[in-house]
């Protein structure tokens, strides 16, 4: 076949097809047999889907407005198409029906074949890019005039691609088929494309580019947007004074975010406060019921975020672990980031540390040089672990330090040592050996301190006296003292005479 372009009329852009010795002229022309009345249909509605994609300003089928590549009205291969953006549907689009107008369809036997194809096009705006066939329907179209035909067809268009719908009429010249697609000149929001290789148009080309600017093909696609995933997440941070005490204020900042690709619907954040926190206020009109703070966000758009501050006060001891959770009715492909916990050491539990002091010194008088051992024992009655225990044993000036079992350090009459921590119910002991350097009663004391709050300081000090028991000297009146002096004087005279 050799192209033979001629001036535009009803026989424009012609091509001669030489078959044997006969030449059959293929031209773009309107229906040489005339058409029926102009018919306007209601705006398209599809019962199978919620969304109608259309680029037609009117659903009117105007007679003698369309052309096909034909010879005497009998068509060769013709492809009519439109490309629809689905950018508004980030999850993609599911097609359930394609509608197209028919100006006239006349088959030799009362019907003819027509194929409807749906493509996803990627890599460039149609007709550039790569079109992938994702759905097709092979029809037998009965003879009709000025109608819109609805064709059930299932196809899924992936996100980020174009939806291309095509009505293809295969060569019907041998069988005697004539087909002119329905169109009007009421305008359109996207181009109508026509492809007919036998008339020299080998790729889909806008009808306006081949001389038929008023041929606005009536073609609609019905379907539903694919529910788009939404990766929502929650993060929580805490602003708190140091150190924390009962009554301290802690402000938690919650940040809800949506990484898409779609919008998240019915987003709700729940923050369940631990028992040792008391709710004070929030900045997002969250509802409060007991320890549960519920922040209703609603729709959170793709790429958006929202923040809320929740103010609390510390009402008790112990660690503070506060967790917030986010939820959405939109499918969330990454649930692992839907919870966030802010952990604080909190106010340490108090520790009631007590100390005792014992000794293995024998009863009675202790001679100079005698060695014996003091044992200082500390016990933690809880309820918390005691940290940074510091002990001081103050010795009598009549003894000197010899050794210890706890690495104690002596400085003068003070002996000190430390213990890093002491658990609830646990005890620690240190044995300290001393030597007597002077006779008499020996008074020593031991004390303990801890960096942990200690509610009972009475038992943090203990004293111990060792050595012989002192005898009380009787008290003498003046007469007794005089008699004592005389006795002693008499004794002295006797001694002198001797």
Mean pLDDT: 88
Largest sheet: 6 strands, antiparallel
CA(first)-CA(last) distance: 172 Å
Per DSSP, the total helix count is 1
The strand order across the widest sheet is: 12-11-14-9-17-18
Number of domains: 3
The class by helix and strand makeup works out as: mainly beta
Beta-strand proportion: over 45%
Describe the protein.
This protein has 498 residues and is mainly beta. It folds into three domains: 2-225, no CATH class; 230-347, Sandwich (Immunoglobulin-like); 351-466, Immunoglobulin-like (Sandwich). The protein contains one helix and 38 strands. The protein has one helix at 478-497, and strands at residues 2-3, 12-19, 22-29, 39-40, 51-54, 60-61, 68-71, 74-75, 78-85, 93-106, 111-122, 130-142, 144-157, 162-169, 178-181, 183-184, 193-196, 201-206, 216-217, 219-225, 230-239, 249-261, 264-272, 277-282, 287-289, 292-300, 305-314, 318-327, 339-347, 351-359, 371-383, 386-394, 399-404, 409-411, 414-422, 427-436, 442-449, 461-466. The strands form nine sheets. The protein has a six-stranded antiparallel beta sheet, with no helix packed on it. The chain is rod-shaped, with a radius of gyration of 51 Å. The chain starts with a strand and ends with a helix. 34% of the residues are buried.
């Amino acid at each position: 076949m050799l192209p033979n372009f001629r001036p535009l009329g009803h026989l424009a852009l012609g091509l001669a097809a030489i078959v044997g010795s006969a030449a059959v002229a293929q031209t773009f022309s309107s229906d040489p047999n005339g058409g029926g009345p102009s018919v306007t249909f209601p705006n398209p509605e599809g019962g199978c889907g919620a969304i109608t994609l259309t680029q037609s300003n009117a659903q009117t089928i105007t007679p003698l407005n369309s052309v096909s590549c034909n010879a005497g009205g009998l068509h060769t291969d013709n492809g009519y198409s439109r490309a629809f953006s689905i950018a508004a549907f980030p999850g993609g689009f599911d097609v359930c029906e394609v509608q197209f107008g028919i100006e006239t369809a006349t088959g030799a036997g009362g019907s003819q074949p027509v194929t409807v194809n749906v493509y996803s096009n990627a890599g460039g705006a149609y007709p550039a890019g790569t079109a992938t066939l994702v759905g097709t329907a092979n029809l037998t179209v009965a003879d009709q005039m000025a109608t819109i035909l609805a064709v059930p067809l299932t196809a899924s268009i992936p996100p980020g691609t174009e939806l291309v719908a095509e009505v293809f009429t295969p060569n019907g010249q041998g069988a005697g088929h004539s087909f002119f697609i329905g169109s009007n000149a009421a305008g359109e929001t996207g181009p109508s494309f026509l492809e007919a290789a036998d008339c020299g148009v080998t790729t889909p080309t806008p009808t306006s580019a081949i001389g038929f600017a008023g041929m606005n093909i009536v073609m609609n696609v019905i379907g539903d947007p694919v529910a788009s995933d939404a990766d929502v997440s929650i993060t929580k941070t805490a602003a708190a004074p140091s150190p924390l005490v009962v009554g301290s204020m802690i402000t938690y900042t919650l940040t809800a975010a949506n990484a898409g690709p779609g919008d998240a619907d019915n987003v709700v954040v729940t923050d369940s406060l631990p028992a040792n926190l008391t709710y004070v206020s929030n900045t997002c009109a969250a509802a409060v019921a007991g320890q549960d703070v519920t922040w209703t966000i609603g729709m959170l758009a793709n790429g958006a975020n929202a923040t809320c501050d929740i103010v609390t006060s510390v009402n008790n001891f112990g660690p503070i672990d506060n967790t917030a959770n986010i939820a959405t009715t939109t499918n969330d492909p990454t649930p692992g980031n839907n919870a966030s916990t802010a952990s604080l050491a909190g106010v340490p539990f108090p520790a009631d540390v007590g100390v005792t002091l014992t000794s293995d010194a024998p009863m009675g008088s202790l001679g100079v040089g005698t060695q014996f051992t003091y044992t200082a024992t500390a016990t933690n009655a809880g309820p918390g672990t005691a940290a940074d225990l510091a002990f001081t044993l103050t010795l009598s000036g009549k003894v000197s330090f010899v050794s210890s079992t706890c690495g104690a350090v002596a400085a003068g009459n003070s002996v000190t040592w430390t213990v890093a921590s002491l658990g609830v119910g646990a005890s620690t002991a240190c044995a300290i050996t001393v030597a007597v350097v002077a006779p008499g009663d020996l008074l020593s004391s031991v004390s303990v301190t801890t960096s942990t709050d200690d509610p009972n300081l009475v038992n943090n000090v203990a004293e111990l006296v060792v050595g012989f028991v002192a005898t009380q000297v009787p008290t003498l009146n003046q007469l007794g003292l005089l008699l004592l002096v005389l006795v002693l004087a008499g004794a002295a005279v006797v001694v002198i005479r001797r």
